[in-house]
Specification:
Helix 6 (91-101) packs parallel to helix 18 (290-300), helix 14 crosses helix 16 (265-276) and helix 17 (280-287) runs antiparallel to helix 18 (290-300). The protein is elongated. It has 18 helices and 2 strands. It has helices at 13-23, 34-38, 45-52, 57-71, 75-84, 91-101, 104-117, 127-139, 152-167, 177-184, 187-201, 205-212, 215-229, 231-243, 250-260, 265-276, 280-287, 290-300, and strands spanning 26-27, 30-31. A hairpin with a 2-residue loop joins strand 1 and strand 2 (30-31). The chain has a two-stranded antiparallel sheet. The protein folds into 3 domains: 13-28 and 40-117, Annexin V, domain 1; 125-229, Annexin V, domain 1, CATH 1.10.220; 233-300, Orthogonal Bundle (Annexin V, domain 1), CATH 1.10.220. The protein has 304 residues and is an all-alpha fold. Pfam families: Annexin (PF00191). Keywords: Annexin, Repeat. This is Annexin.
């Protein structure tokens, strides 16, 4: 469930592009010259948020085209220029605004690229398994059409195979039954299998993974299970982890809210409320500030 509040009627993409241009060249309510703006004048972050955070991906794409046509400059380049001349108070805002304004596929590709560039700090014993599982997850074909039929015979068999693989602590390898099942079965087939697992063994499969599979491999399996069948659980946990403690993992918080706002942020908010007895809104307000806080709250949406 999307949490984007699109106004009605929606301004034209040309009007939005013009408003963005003005917002990028305003300080303290006054228009400034392009030369002054290039010297580091602040933008009206509130106006940028009110426009872009209330537009769908298709509408944002139209705004980008209009902006490039009207001003002969890509909108993202303007944001990147602001980011390159940031002060600490606006760094997170500009990074978040760039990600949000991107096409969703473009954004996901960018995030994957950045993640793969980071130095691996996890234990190396499971690294070859992690890489192979990720490759299989992104390359496997899963039929998810309306005619997708759940095979209950396979459900019973694979629920048993998963229990054996988890509780006997099999050493992970490329042909491990767990890896094979989660990287090839449809989401509806997996949901039925995990439900049968719960009925047969009296516990949730994610709980048993936590109990029997430690380290990076265990975290990888649990993440795969949640992302494939109940992603709101995974993303609620990521948001909570990003704001716990003395500091905030802004990049992690941004990534989740930006990437899920148009998909299932409504479900994530509800899962968060049930599990942590507070709201995403309350925790965002308590751990962020200024334009960045306003940006995140606009995407999270209103909560009761």
């Amino acid at each position: 469930m999307s949490t984007i509040a699109v106004p009605s009627p929606v301004p034209s993409s040309d009007n939005d592009a013009e408003s963005l241009k003005k917002a990028l060249q305003v300080r303290h309510g006054r228009m400034v010259t392009t030369r002054a703006a290039s010297a580091g004048w602040r933008a009206d972050k509130g106006a940028l948020t009110r426009i872009l955070c209330r537009r769908t991906a298709a509408q944002r794409a139209a705004i980008r085209r209009a902006y490039a046509f009207l001003y002969r400059e890509p909108l993202l380049n303007c944001f990147r220029y602001k980011l390159s001349r940031h002060c600490l108070l606006s760094l997170d805002f500009w990074k978040a605004m760039i990600l949000w304004t991107m096409d969703p596929a473009e954004r996901d590709a960018n995030l994957v690229h950045e993640a793969l560039k980071k130095k691996q700090r996890d234990e190396t014993y499971y690294m070859s398994v992690l890489i192979e599982m990720l490759v299989r997850l992104v390359s496997s074909y899963r039929y998810e059409g309306d005619e997708c039929v759940v095979d209950m015979n396979v459900v019973r068999m694979e629920a048993s195979q998963l229990a054996e693989a988890i509780k006997k602590k099999k050493q992970p390898h490329g042909e491990d039954e767990f890896v094979r099942i989660v990287t090839t079965r449809s989401k509806s087939q997996l949901r039925a299998t995990f439900q049968r697992y719960r009925e047969d063994h009296g516990s949730d499969i994610a709980e048993d993974i936590d109990s029997h599979c430690s380290g990076q491999f265990g975290r990888m399996l649990k993440t795969a299970v949640w992302c494939l069948t109940s992603p709101e659980k995974h993303f609620a946990e990521v948001i909570r982890h990003s704001i716990l403690g003395l500091g905030t993992y802004e990049d992690m918080l941004t990534r989740v809210i930006v990437s899920r706002a148009e998909i299932d942020m409504g479900q994530i908010r509800e899962e968060y409320k049930v599990r942590y007895k507070t709201t995403v809104t309350r925790d965002v307000v308590g751990d962020t500030s200024f334009g960045y806080k306003g940006f995140l709250l606009a995407l999270v949406g209103r909560e009761d």
